[in-house]
């Protein structure tokens, strides 16, 4: 298969799987790792596909690869077919057995250190043969992967309106300041009191940044953001160093250099368990039911 050109659906299926993985990752090595094959085999499959079609599909860019115009067109036309085939094979293999199979599960950056891993450990003791492919990312990325079928389930904060969702609880957002900050000894604070503060926040594409901007605007000011960063633990570290304040959910691990102050008003956001519309195996349903039954362990209340 890897060493000569064949024509037909039977021959093209593994070639298109290699092409799709490389197109998604932009890197032959990572694509080979995703498919569990040597990079040399993946490279031969892509070369065979290019010879079959008579066009180049990739061009080198830095340490990775980028699609050619012909590659872009092929990817747009075949990406759904490859995923539909993957889903069909996966469902046929696992539908009949809720104790085995693969579940692709995503969760947000703010629930990583304790709550979600602890629940997954509990689930593993009950279903040790179910394999979990885990993705931790911010909201828009998780939503996109659920919509396109790359994830079966995802805990999202907040869940998008266009995907089936089961409410799990709410996540409170609070003011975080350094221990030496004048507000560190307070139990509550009005948001308007923060008008002169310097903020450390996520980029504007993050939902938590949208909340910060809208809440501050409602309080009569626009936040002065000194640092923008995607990683929540880095935000906390910068706050602990006295470089600014931040509105964040409570950390899941102890943060001795930070003080957390409750903000007046309703300052929380919904936690939801989101599923796609690509069908569901019994293994996916089993994890979904498990997480719903233990929603307090996710929401913290």
From TrEMBL:
GO molecular function: DNA binding; DNA-binding transcription factor activity
PROSITE patterns: HTH_LYSR
Origin superkingdom: Bacteria
Family, per entry: Belongs to the LysR transcriptional regulatory family.
UniProt cross-references to InterPro entries, sorted A to Z: LysR_HTH_N, LysR_subst-bd, WH-like_DNA-bd_sf, WH_DNA-bd_sf
Name of the protein this chain belongs to: LysR family transcriptional regulator
One GO CC annotation: protein-DNA complex
Residue intervals of the HTH lysR-type domain: 15-68
Keywords, alphabetical: Activator, DNA-binding, Transcription, Transcription regulation
SUPFAM superfamilies: Periplasmic binding protein-like II, Winged helix' DNA-binding domain
């Amino acid at each position: 298969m890897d060493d000569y050109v064949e024509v037909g659906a039977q021959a093209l299926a593994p070639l298109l799987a290699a092409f799709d993985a490389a197109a998604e990752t932009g890197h032959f090595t990572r694509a080979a790792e995703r498919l569990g094959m040597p990079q040399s085999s993946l490279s031969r499959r892509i070369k065979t596909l290019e010879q079959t079609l008579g066009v180049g599909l990739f061009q080198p860019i830095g340490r990775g690869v980028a699609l050619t115009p012909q590659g872009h067109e092929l990817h747009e036309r075949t990406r759904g077919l490859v995923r539909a085939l993957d889903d069909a094979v996966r469902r046929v293999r696992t539908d009949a057995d809720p104790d085995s199979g693969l579940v692709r599960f995503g969760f947000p950056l703010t629930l990583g250190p304790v709550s979600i891993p602890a629940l997954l450990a509990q689930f593993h003791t009950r279903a040790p043969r179910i394999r979990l492919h885990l993705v931790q990312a911010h909201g828009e990325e998780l939503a996109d992967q659920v919509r396109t079928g790359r994830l079966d389930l995802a805990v999202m904060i907040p869940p998008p309106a266009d995907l089936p969702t089961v409410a799990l609880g709410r996540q409170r957002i609070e003011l975080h300041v350094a221990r030496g900050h004048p507000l560190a000894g307070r139990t509550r604070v009005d948001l308007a009191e923060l008008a002169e503060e310097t903020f450390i926040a996520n980029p504007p594409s993050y939902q938590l940044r949208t909340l910060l901007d809208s809440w501050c605007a409602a309080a009569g000011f626009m936040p002065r953001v000194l640092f923008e960063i995607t990683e929540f633990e880095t935000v906390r570290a910068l706050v602990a160093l006295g470089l600014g304040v931040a509105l964040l959910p409570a950390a899941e691990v102890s943060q001795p250099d930070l003080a957390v102050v409750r903000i007046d008003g309703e300052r929380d956001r919904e936690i939801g368990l989101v599923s796609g519309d690509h069908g569901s195996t019994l293994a996916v349903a089993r994890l979904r039911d498990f997480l719903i039954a233990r929603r307090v362990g996710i929401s913290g209340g």
